[in-house]
Specification:
With 331 residues, this protein is α+β, with helices and mostly antiparallel strands. It is 34% helix and 24% strand. Strand 9 and strand 10 form a beta hairpin. Helix 1 packs parallel to helix 2, helix 2 crosses helix 3 and helix 5 packs antiparallel against helix 6. The structure holds (3R)-3-hydroxy-3-methyl-5-(phosphonooxy)pentanoic acid (PMV). (3R)-3-hydroxy-3-methyl-5-(phosphonooxy)pentanoic acid binds next to helix 4.
C-alpha cells in the first residue's frame, strides 16, 4: 500500500472565476482569468492510500463518510490519477479541514488541491504544481490556484488546449495581506458554483463583465506586483460587484446576499472613506464577506466588523504558502 499526505490552503479571489466554457462543462475551462491569494489559516489535510486489497474507494471528510455526490467528485480525481499511473487499486481517502466548512471559505479549493497532491504522490506521479493543476480542476476549478502560495493567476487555456495555465505572481512573503472573513450565515449555499458557472451564460451582463476584465485583470496583476493596495482594492471590489451582477441577472437569478452582507459592505466603505482605514470587500458565491486589509490595520477593522448586526464571527486569515507534503498521516 502506498500512502501520502498533503496540506493545502484555501484561496480568496480578487478577480473572480465565474463562467465555464459550455462545450466541456466537466473540465472547468474558465471564460476569464482569475487572480487569488492563498490563505494560511484555512487549510485542508488529506491522506490518500491506494490499496490493492480494498474492494472500493472509501472516503471520510471531517470525520463522516463522503456523500455519493462528494465521492463522485473525488473519484474524478482518483480515476485520472489511476489512468495516468496505470494502476487499478481502490483508494482510501481521509480529509479534514482546520476551519469550519460552510463558513464562507472555499473548502473545495483547499480540499481538491490537497487531494490532487496526495493522490499523485501516493501513485508516484510527478508532483510539481503544474503537473497537478489538471487533476485539481476535476474537483473544483479554483483548486488549481491553491497549489501555489501567495498570489496566483489562472488563465483560460488556448482554444486548442485543455490543460490549465496557472502561475504564481508573487509569493506570500512578498506582500502579506489579511482576509477578515465576516460570517453572516453558515447555511449551505442554495446553488452550487458548478451550476452557477453554466447559468452565467444566461445573464445579459456576462459579455460586459468579460469585456471589463480585459482592463481589470492587468490592473490587479500590476497592483500585486507593485504592492499597490489601493489599486488592488478598488479593482477587487468592483469585480466582486460585477460577478454578483451576473449572478443576480442569470435565469434563474442567484441572490446570495443576506441583509448583513450589505451591512458589512457599507461599513467597509465608511471605514475607508470616513475613517481612512485601507480595507476593501469581496464576496464569493455565498453571503459571507471577505474584508481584505493590511496586517497593521487588521485588529481595528476586525473589531469594527465584529460589532455589526448579523455578524456571527470574524475569521482571520493571512497570506499562505502553496500545497505541500507532510509525514503527519491521518491514518
Ligand atoms: O471553483 P469553483 O467551481 O467552486 O468556483 C469558484 C467561484 C468563486 O469562488 C465564486 C470565485 C473564485 O474565483 O474563487
Amino acid at each position: 500500500m502506498t500512502k501520502a499526505t498533503a496540506r493545502a490552503g484555501s484561496n480568496i479571489a480578487f478577480i473572480k472565476y465565474w463562467g465555464t466554457r459550455r462545450d466541456r462543462p466537466e473540465l472547468a475551462l474558465p471564460l476569464n482569468p482569475s487572480i487569488s491569494m492563498t490563505l494560511r489559516e484555512a487549510r485542508t489535510t488529506t491522506t490518500v492510500a491506494f490499496d490493492p486489497d480494498a474492494a472500493e474507494d472509501y472516503c471520510t471528510l471531517n470525520g463522516s463518510a463522503a456523500t455519493t455526490e462528494e465521492l463522485k467528485r473525488i473519484q474524478r480525481v482518483l480515476g485520472a490519477v489511476r489512468r495516468m499511473a496505470g494502476i487499478r487499486a481502490s483508494a482510501r481517502v481521509v480529509s479534514s479541514n482546520n476551519f469550519p466548512t460552510s463558513a464562507g471559505i472555499a473548502s473545495s479549493a483547499s480540499g481538491f488541491a490537497a487531494l490532487a497532491l496526495a493522490a499523485a504522490r501516493a501513485a508516484s506521479l510527478p508532483c510539481e504544481p503544474q503537473d497537478l493543476a489538471g487533476l485539481a480542476i476535476l474537483g473544483s476549478g479554483s483548486a488549481c490556484r491553491s497549489l501555489y502560495g501567495g498570489y496566483v493567476l489562472w488563465e483560460p487555456p488556448l482554444p486548442s488546449r485543455e490543460d490549465p495555465s496557472v502561475r504564481q505572481l508573487a509569493s506570500e512573503s512578498d506582500w502579506p495581506l489579511v482576509d477578515l472573513v465576516a460570517i453572516v450565515s453558515r447555511e449551505e449555499k442554495p446553488v452550487k458554483s458548478s451550476l452557477g458557472h453554466i447559468l452565467a451564460w444566461t445573464s445579459p451582463f456576462l459579455e460586459a463583465r468579460l469585456a471589463s476584465l480585459r482592463t481589470a485583470v492587468p490592473k490587479v496583476e500590476k497592483a500585486v506586483l507593485e504592492r499597490d493596495f489601493e489599486a488592488l482594492g478598488e479593482a477587487m471590489e468592483a469585480d466582486a460587484l460585477s460577478m454578483h451582477a451576473v449572478m443576480m441577472t442569470s435565469r434563474p437569478a442567484l441572490l446570495y446576499w443576506e441583509p448583513a452582507t450589505v451591512g458589512v459592505m457599507k461599513r467597509v466603505r465608511v471605514l475607508r472613506e470616513a475613517g481612512g482605514l485601507a480595507c476593501y470587500f469581496t464576496i464569493d458565491a455565498g453571503p459571507n464577506v471577505h474584508v481584505i486589509t493590511l496586517p497593521g490595520l487588521a485588529p481595528v477593522v476586525a473589531q469594527e466588523i465584529q460589532n455589526l448586526e448579523g455578524v456571527q464571527e470574524v475569521l482571520v486569515c493571512t497570506t499562505g504558502e502553496g500545497a505541500g507534503l507532510t509525514e503527519d498521516h491521518l491514518f
